Structure formats: C-alpha cells, structure tokens
Amino acid sequence: MALSILRTVLAILPCLVAGLELAVTVEKPNIVFILTDDQDWHMESLDYMPLLRKHIINEGTLFDRHYCTVSICCPSRVNIWTGRAAHNTNVTDVHPPYGGYPKFVQQGLNENWLPVWLQDLGYNTYYTGKLFNAHSVDNYDDPLVKGFNGSDFLLDPYTYEYYRAHMTRNGAPPVSYEGQYSPDVVAEKAYGFLDEATQHDEPFFLAVAPIAPHADVIFADPVQFNPAKYASRHAHLFKDYKIPRTANFNPDTPSGVSWVKHLPQLNDTVIEYNDEFQRSRLRALQSVDEMVETLVQKLDAKGLLNNTYIFYTTDNGFHISQHRMPPGKECPFETDIHIPLIVRGPGIPAGHTAGVVSSHTDLTPTLLKLAGSDRPDLDGTPIPLSAEQLASPASGEHVNVEFWGRAIPEGKYGNDAMSAMNNTYKALRVVGDGYSLLYTVWCTGEKEYYDLLRDPDQMINYLGDDSASLAADYTLAGRSFEHLVSRLDSLLMVLKSCKAKTCHAPWTVLHPDGNVKTLNEALHGSYDGFYREQPKVSFSSCQPGYLVDAEGPQEVDVWGDEYQRVTPSGGRQQSFRYHGDWSLWT
Ligand SMILES: *[C@@H]1O[C@H](CO)[C@@H](O)[C@H](O)[C@H]1NC(C)=O
Ligand SMILES: *[C@@H]1O[C@H](CO)[C@@H](O)[C@H](O)[C@H]1NC(C)=O
Ligand SMILES: *[C@@H]1O[C@H](CO)[C@@H](O)[C@H](O)[C@H]1NC(C)=O
Ligand SMILES: *[C@@H]1O[C@H](CO)[C@@H](O)[C@H](O)[C@H]1NC(C)=O
Ligand SMILES: *[C@@H]1O[C@H](CO)[C@@H](O)[C@H](O)[C@H]1NC(C)=O
C-alpha cells in the first residue's frame, strides 16, 4: 500500500530545534472493531479462544474492569456507537416503542453517531453483522443506515438464526444465506471489506459483529431461544466443559431481588441442559476465534498491523444457572455487566492487564480520540491506551448501569414468572481504592448492596429483607453501612440522569468546590447530614421504558453556603438561601 499525503494528517509541532519549526507527519490509524453478542467473562469464555489469546490478548491489553451500562443488545449497541448513556439516547429496549432500529432513527441518532463522525474525520467506514434489533427485511431501507461506505447487515426476523441469515449489502434488497453458518458468512464479508478498505488511501474503520455466541432465536409464537448453533467442524469440542460451580451457581438459598429471588432451585436435568447450552456458546465462538486470526494475518500481509488498532468486546454479558437463573442477561449482576474488552495496536502494552474502570460509553470517545477528535459533549471519556496513559489514568471509579422493562428467559426451561416488567432498575458499580461495590435500586422498591471484595459472587445483599443485623455490623473505610449507602444513593441520583460533564465527574455536581472526587472523599464525616437529607433514588411504579414521571426525584442538593438544588443533566433548578452548617443536620 502506497502512503499518500491524503492518508496523513500534518501535525505541525512548534519545536524549537535550532530555531526551526519541525513538521511531523502522523498517520491516522486504522481501526478494526470486533463485537460479539452476549459473550461472558465469568464463565471463562476467553479461555476457550486460543487464537484471540495469541493475537490480541498476548499482543495487547486486557481491560479487566470493563462494563456495559445496559445489559441487552440494542440499547447497549446504541450506547457503544453513540458514546451516550441509554438515558440520553432513550433507546432502552430491543423493539419499538422504546427501542430497536426505528427508535434509534426517531431519536435523530442515525445522523449523530460514530460512523458519521469518523467519515467527517476522513475515515472510510465499513460494518458487517448485526447492527440493532428491529432492523429488518422490511425496514432496512426506511431509512438506510447512515455513515458507512460499505455495509452488510444481518436483518430480523432472521438475525439470530445461525443457518438462515438474511443480509442487506449497501442498502440493496436482502439476500438469503440459508444453509450457511452466519458467523462464517460475516467473517467472509469482513475479509472482503478489509480488502476494499485497503484499496483506498484514507484510514479505515471496520466493525465486525457476528451473532456468536447468542442463542439461536426463532421468532415464532412464542419466541424460541434455543442453544447457539455451531459449525460442524467444532461439534467435537468441549464435551467435558461445565459452567464454573461458583458460590452463586444454583445456590441452596435464593439470592437477588424482584423476580430473581422467587426462582426455584434447578434440578439435574436443567443443570445439564444449561451446561450444554454454554458448551454450544463456546463452540459458536470458535468461528469468531478463527476470524480473529485471519483478520490479523491479512492486516499483517498488507503491512498494516502496526498502524491498526484492534478492539475486541461484546455488547453485554450472560448468566446461566447463577442465582438459579435460566440463560439470559438484563441483570446488574457481574455476570451480565462485567465483560471482556481487549485492545491491541500501536503503543498499547502487550500482554498487559489494565485495571482502569471503563464502560461501553467510553468506547466512542476512545475511537474518536484515535481518529484525532475530542468530544467532551459525549457521556464517556477516552479509555487510556498507551503505556504512558495507563501509568497515570485520569479515569474515575464509577459505572452507571441502567435497565428498563423485562428480563427475557432463554432456553427450554425459562421461567414464566420472569415475563413481568419488574426488571427496571438503576445501578451503580464503584471500584476504587479499597472497595468494589454494587448498589441497585429497583422499580419494585427493593435495593441491593454487594461488597465484591468480600463476596465476589454477590450472594450477600446487605439491603435484603433479612440483612438488618449484617448491615449493623458492616463497616468500610471506617464508616457505617448507613453512611456508605447514603453516598452511593446520591452518586446514583446524579448518574441516572447525568449528561456529558456530569457523567464524567459526577461528584462535582454534589460538590462544585471540587473537594470530593471519590467515594472515599465523600465519606468524610462532615458530609453525613448533607447526604442523609439528599433526595433518594426511587420509582413510583415499574415501567417498560424511560418514563420520567415514574422515576422519583430528579434533582439533587448541592454542598455549599447557599442551598441549591440542581438537575444532574445540567441547568440549575432552584436556589434557596441557606447559610446553615450541613453537619448540624446530623
Ligand atoms: C466514504 O464516504 C464518505 C462520505 O460519503 C465520502 O466522503 C468518501 O469519499 C467515501 N470514500 C470512498 C472510498 O468512497
Ligand atoms: C426439572 O425441572 C424442569 C423445569 O422446572 C421440569 O420441567 C422437569 O420436569 C424437572 N425434571 C425432573 C426430573 O424433576
Ligand atoms: C510498519 O511496518 C512497516 C513494514 O512492516 C514499516 O515500513 C512502517 O514504517 C511501520 N510503521 C510504523 C508506524 O511503525
Ligand atoms: C411488580 O412490582 C410491583 C411493584 O411495583 C408489584 O406490585 C407486582 O406484584 C410485581 N409483579 C410481579 C409479577 O412480581
Ligand atoms: C423515551 O421514549 C418514550 C417512548 O417514545 C417516551 O414515552 C418517553 O417520554 C421518552 N423519555 C424521555 C425521558 O424522553
């Protein structure tokens, strides 16, 4: 590939070398982004992908504190590709009226998302595989997806049928791939786009989104979520695999809240079914594993490997048998929100594990930064990638997690009780110096508090029905349970409707003086009264979408001499004169 001047940006660095200005040409990097569907971290799926390990994990950095913010396909993918929280896209479900491709379009996001911005930055952009739910053989051209120079999308209602893919190439009428294995079809299309992209001088972005290891879904009535199908060449693999028997695996006592705590214990038939369900997922991932190797080899053969970033992640996690749950996602447990992110590329340490806290909201800001653009108006911040950035990460310790609607049971033994709408919640994950916590508030009025340093499997809910005595004995960082919860609730109050800067630095909404930047700092005793009196996160009912009227108070109090109440998304609301000492409120 010849380099051309088009391919480069000129960065003129003012450099006092012998009184001369030194002109340096910096080539914009290419980006290959691989997005799997429902891949787990906690059942060790990465350990069953040797080629991913060889080419990406061993040659790049594994981000072992990476989270999705809404654990279901479409809302999560919109979050990834827009850099905005689901509460700001309002794409909160897989189908209309609250989600799916039509809602994405309706929200004006088709003109306002990563591929469009990358084209504006001089990139050629390509996508193949699954984009969003409810992007179908009927609406694929109404309107066309914007922002891609080349695209070949899987379409509903066939998206999740492993041997009956229907795809639209560059907006043309759908073509059926019946009888061919969908992840292999998508891999071939990715190789084609890679060849196409490298015929041009501009840098390129190529996203590849195979459906593996999602369930094979047939949109009949009722909808069937069957085990993932795999290519016959992988049928012999992993016959002895079992889902790790962690403390939360089909526990003797119920765990969780809402519908989870009513689930019956699984019998041996269901346990074996679930183990085989997970084996099928691991086999389906083998096609992706092979694709990773071929993509790397092709980039290498073209001499582009050293100027290409390769991202590998998934839309959301997955649970099976943990907390007695049938196969599925949609929960705030680690199984569902804590997911793989691996990045290899120029300047990224090889074989490194980075403990920075990051989320899917950060991916678009990260990609835009690589492409040379800064977007502080987005809800995420760039993830540190280079050794230098990783050495002193500026990132925070919080992840804002949210969900609206229902949990969908998958597999043969899905529980009907789950079909209720009671899966609407707000959650806050905080991972900092000396703590690793999950705090949730559910539309049912229930709450959860898990301490993952003491209880990594999330079996002890300190806010559960019978937990008063446990909570009474609980301390962290020298503070009592009540003081901890009051801070977490206030942080969640801010994050659940944050926007841009207030998502990046949520404590500054509560403490504009800048004196509090972490949970540890907020725990100071002088703030006890202030936090106790804060409006609390609550719901008045369980709703299927982001209906603000059902979501309790929307404003928080601000620490300072003057009493102010503000909306976290921006504007000041009210300001009262209050010259008291907050600590007198104790
Ligand atoms: C890709 O699309 C952009 C936006 O339409 C356009 O400016 C650019 O020329 C296209 N690149 C190629 C190689 O056609
Ligand atoms: C195990 O549980 C499933 C789901 O509840 C049920 O359909 C099945 O009959 C049970 N099997 C046995 C052997 O009890
Ligand atoms: C990438 O490698 C090629 C040869 O393999 C070399 O010519 C080029 O200078 C390298 N580019 C960078 C940015 O290291
Ligand atoms: C859902 O939650 C509401 C409280 O908001 C409760 O009244 C209702 O019984 C719950 N439904 C189910 C099926 O659990
Ligand atoms: C989100 O979308 C739904 C469905 O269109 C709408 O009813 C709701 O008011 C929207 N929420 C917000 C906060 O805009």
UniProtKB/TrEMBL annotation:
Signal sequence region: 1-19
PTM description: The conversion to 3-oxoalanine (also known as C-formylglycine, FGly), of a serine or cysteine residue in prokaryotes and of a cysteine residue in eukaryotes, is critical for catalytic activity.
Transmembrane portions of the chain: none
Gene Ontology molecular-function annotations: arylsulfatase activity; glycosaminoglycan binding; N-acetylglucosamine-6-sulfatase activity
SUPFAM superfamilies tied to this protein: Alkaline phosphatase-like
Chain ranges of the Sulfatase N-terminal domain: 29-372
Species of origin: Oleoguttula mirabilis
Similarity remark: Belongs to the sulfatase family.
UniProt name for this protein: Arylsulfatase
Enzyme class: hydrolase
Residues the record lists as 3-oxoalanine (Cys) modifications: 73
Gene Ontology BP, a term: phenol-containing compound metabolic process
Gene3D superfamilies the record matches: Alkaline Phosphatase, subunit A
Domain of life: Eukaryota
InterPro entries: Alkaline_phosphatase_core_sf (IPR017850), Arylsulfatase (IPR012083), Sulfatase_CS (IPR024607), Sulfatase_N (IPR000917)
Hydrolase found in the keyword field: yes
The reaction(s) this protein catalyses: an aryl sulfate + H2O = a phenol + sulfate + H(+)
Keyword Hydrolase: yes
